[in-house]
Amino acid sequence: MELFNNLILGFTVALSLQNLMYCFIGVFLGTLIGVLPGIGPLATIAMLLPITFNVAPTSALIMLAGIYYGAQYGGSTTAILVNLPGETSAVVTTFDGYQMARQGRAGPALGIAAIGSFVAGTFCTMLIALFGPPLAEMALKFGAPEYFSLMLMGLVTAAVLAHGDMAKALAMTALGLLLGVVGTDVNSGMARFSFGFPELTDGIGFVVLAVGVFAIGEIVSNLGDKEERQIFTGQKIKNLWPNKQDLKDSAMPIMRGTLLGAFFGVLPGTGPSIASFSSYMLEKKMSKHPEKFGKGAIEGVAGPESANNADAQTKFIPTLTLGIPASATMALMLGALTIQGIAPGPQVMTQKPDLFWGLVASMWVGNLMLVLLNMPLIGLWVSLLKVPYRLLFPAIMAFSCIGIYSVNNSAFEIYLTAIFGVVGFIWLRLECQPAPLLLGFVLGPLMEENLRRALLISRGDPTVFFTRPISLGFMIATAIIVIIMVLPALKKRRAAITD
After folding, report:
1. 428 — phi, psi (to 5°)?
2. Nearest alpha-carbon partner for 48 in 215, 219, 270
């Protein structure tokens, strides 16, 4: 009964005219950036953060969430019609989606992608509603040692599961932690790592780092990539609703993809691309005709599309209930909460129930909007791909600079953003993924605060993290994760030495 009352509250908030407008803006922008290659949800949310300063917290989060899951949806449209994934998670959709388009079955491919996304989104929104309150209630019993251990586990997991070299990911996480402690020490009042710049005594702005590294750095990096767009010029798209056989073939892949995406969604550091690749491999392995995959199998579209949307939705579970971001995009969501003066964590659900349940209800509304909005606009999305990326670049840069300056009216922050843009570009060229950096930056001050508090409570005894059962459990889990990831590398090195 309590869940029912909470959902009524959520829909009352989500269906207000203002929040419906922000939800529409979010899913529309999300689809747009999902269609356009190179401009991901991370860069877009980073650029739009300054705009949310003067918007109500609930409306701001509804819009940012719409951008995130809308981008997962939009990436499938161009993957199917253009053989060009707008998002990394849509790479798998190109394997069979584009082949279906070439065979004159672009309509059913787009239709099943929409159905899979809607089913996954609806199911995972129910998961958030069901498991969010118990998780938050459990988290309220956490003390400083438990929070520190949980954040440590989250950071290590994000680093070891990140793309590329694990050592680089751990190094980026450590650098994020260091950048997070720049500013005035809360206890002593002394400036730390400000290097004589008075502007740094308040710390590095979250928006400055996010826009510099993720928006400017990534966009400049994309300028060097050669644009190859194979525009689908087949017959007119029709029969968007799949036939009975298509629905029968896709039913189980959609269910399996949804469950797989929900599982990966709650794990820190695992992006939707991991969920979609895993779903594709699972469907190929379980299929009675694996030879059809890569040649236009509708199961190869249904499973991955459901998985990446389920992953995007369930990322909100640890973010909203525990205050632990499960991805770099979720770290931006936490940043948006902090900017609005709301302390992230389980207390959000009790202190701001309209915000939590309004966001949950808006996900249902947003997923329905995505289905109704995108089908008539397929032609528009494909036409947008003809705009050269070099023309989009100056507009994005100008928008980013205006947004940064509007936060504190500080020219210093624009210079700092430019520096982070250059550094971010170098990191990308060195294959150092910046996502762990942002997670470290967001969690760094929270980890320091909980570490100091735990040591004050225990009078400087570090064993407090190992004598409390929940904290010990997190520490053991962290050690197991590191060992599992390090052992294969050590075995390979030992084998290479003996050879």
Report:
1. -65, -40
2. 215
Amino acid at 237: I
pLDDT tens digits, 335-389: 778 777 777 777 777 778 888 888 888 888 888 888 777 767 766 766 666 666 6
What Cα–Cα distance (Å) separates residue 360 from each residue in 18, 120, 124, 282?
16, 14, 10, 30
Q: How far apart are CA 149 and CA 137, in angstroms?
A: 18
> Which secondary-structure segment (H or E) carries 192?
strand 191-192
Residues 302-317 have pLDDT tens digits of: 888 888 888 888 888 8
Place of tokens 């997670």: 439
Neighbour count for residue 118 (Cβ, 10 Å) = 19
Residues 6 or more apart whose Cβ sits within 8 Å of residue 259: 310
**Which residues have CB under 8 Å from 430's CB, separation 6+?**
168
pTM of the model: 0.71
d(CA 473, CA 109): 45
Distances in Å between the Cα of 406 and the Cα atoms of 329, 396, 400, 446 are: 22, 15, 10, 27
Using alpha carbons only, how large is the chain's radius of gyration in Å?
Answer: 23
Residue pointed to by tokens 């990539």: 225
Cα–Cα distance, 147 to 322 (Å, whole number): 9
Judge contact between 129 and 313, C-beta under 8 A: no
Residue 289: left if φ>0, alpha if ψ -120 to 50, beta else—which one? Answer: beta
Residue 190 CB-half CA count within 13 A: 4
Beta bridge pairs of residue 192: 183
User: Kind and range of the H or E element at 427?
Assistant: helix 411-429
